Amino acid sequence: MTTHFFADTAVLTGRTVRHVTRSLDTIITTAITPVAIMLLFVYVFGGAIDTGSISYVNYMLPGILLITIASGISYTAYRLFMDIQGGIFERFQSMPIARSGVLWAHVLTSMVANLSSLVIVVGVAVLMGFRSGAGLPAWLAVAGILILFTLALTWLAVIPGLTASSVDGASAFAYPLIFLPFISSAFVPTATMPGPVRAFAEHQPVTSIVDTIRDLLAQRPIGTGIWTALAWCVGLLVVAQVFANIAYRRRGGRI
């Protein structure tokens, strides 16, 4: 049964990945918005923001990476919604294949597409002056956090992909996620914010994740912040998968 699941998921993932590779503009488009924001803040606003001894491009890159992920997962909801509208989803459900493989194919494709976009954004950041003396363990830790965050948001994207009544509704949920980093420590220190805004910024998931990635890349002690970041990522993943499972069961499937 396990072999059956992996084989079916691999075939279905190959199908959705081919759709992405045949329209590389999807990955490029996903990367354009974060790159544009990075260029704007570094070259227009960066000189007015005091980030101490760390360069502004180094300071803001973690937040840009999270925006990249939030931008990319909207396409997951879109692709899943289009499969349902086109009748392909139901057709797969009627075939003798692992039903959970249908969803996992979209999730894994999202991981591949988003990681590709992240590589593009980091490449542009390097051209803009981003530098880090972090060693391999720190980079692996950063990669692990980004992968976990991507997985959590991808399962979150599955929910509107399964339940939305229009293509706009399927992808619109990502907009609040894209703007969430702006009310965090991603672009400016939270100490500069007014009281209520600062309280929200310091206790929302993006701030802990951004701060942890920034400390890892800057070779600073991360303390207990990494556990808060991981708790947010795992918590979001569990909640998203539970509700995705509920939505999937209503369509006769099981994750």
List the helices and strands and how they pair.
Elements lengths: L1 H20 L3 H21 L10 H30 L2 H6 L6 H28 L8 H28 L3 H6 L1 H6 L15 H8 L2 H13 L7 H25 L6
Q: What is the radius of gyration computed over CA atoms, rounded to a whole number of angstroms?
A: 19 Å
The number of distinct helices, counting runs of at least 4 residues, comes to 11
User: Low-confidence parts lasting 5 or more residues at pLDDT below 50?
Assistant: none
Counting structural domains, the number is: 1
The helix/strand class is: mainly alpha
| Mean pLDDT, all residues | 85
The percent of residues in helical segments reads: over 70%
Distance between the termini: 14 Å
Fold and architecture overview:
This protein has one domain (2-249). Helix content is 75%, strand content 0%. It is built from 11 helices and no strands. The chain has helices spanning 2-21, 25-45, 56-85, 88-93, 100-127, 136-163, 167-172, 174-179, 195-202, 205-217, 225-249. Helix 3 packs parallel to helix 6. The model has no long low-confidence stretch (mean pLDDT 85).
